[in-house]
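F.,

This is the one I mentioned.
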């Protein structure tokens, strides 16, 4: 779930944002083109994710076509969030390997996510500082145009 993050416009910070492409009701098998449309990822990227081990094994139809499940879509949503954090692909692949290895890797997974969280918090602070500079400059120029 994505949260709206603009309090300056009076937007509720905790209001969930609906997914861009809701999943069809009652379905649990999707083609690569359907998944590409739902996620915004290209078919090439989805195949690459599978090849490098970022995606778990994707089932195939009797004709060899990939058949993604709702669980695969959930995983891709998480991968999308990890990408937004700036997590390196190698770390995402490592996280995927740890998930597949089982519960005994929970501590290592947590450490990886905590490091990523620390990086995100640092980036947020940097962006807040940058935003303050921009706001100051905008106010400066607004005063000159009136």
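My design for it:
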């Amino acid at each position: 779930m994505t949260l709206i993050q603009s309090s300056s416009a009076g937007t509720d910070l905790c209001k969930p944002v609906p997914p861009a492409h809701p999943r069809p009701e009652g379905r649990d098998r999707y083609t690569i083109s359907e998944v590409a449309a739902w996620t915004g990822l290209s078919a090439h990227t989805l195949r690459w994710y599978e090849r490098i081990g970022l995606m778990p094994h994707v089932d195939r139809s009797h004709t060899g076509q990939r058949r993604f499940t709702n669980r695969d879509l959930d995983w891709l949503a998480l991968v999308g969030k990890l990408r937004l954090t700036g997590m390196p692909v190698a770390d995402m692949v490592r996280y995927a390997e740890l998930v597949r290895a089982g519960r005994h890797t929970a501590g290592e997974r947590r450490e990886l996510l905590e490091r990523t969280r620390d990086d995100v918090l640092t980036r947020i602070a940097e962006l807040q500082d940058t935003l303050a500079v921009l706001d100051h400059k905008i106010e400066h120029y607004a005063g000159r145009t009136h």
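Residues 106-145 form the longest helix (40 residues).

Talk soon.
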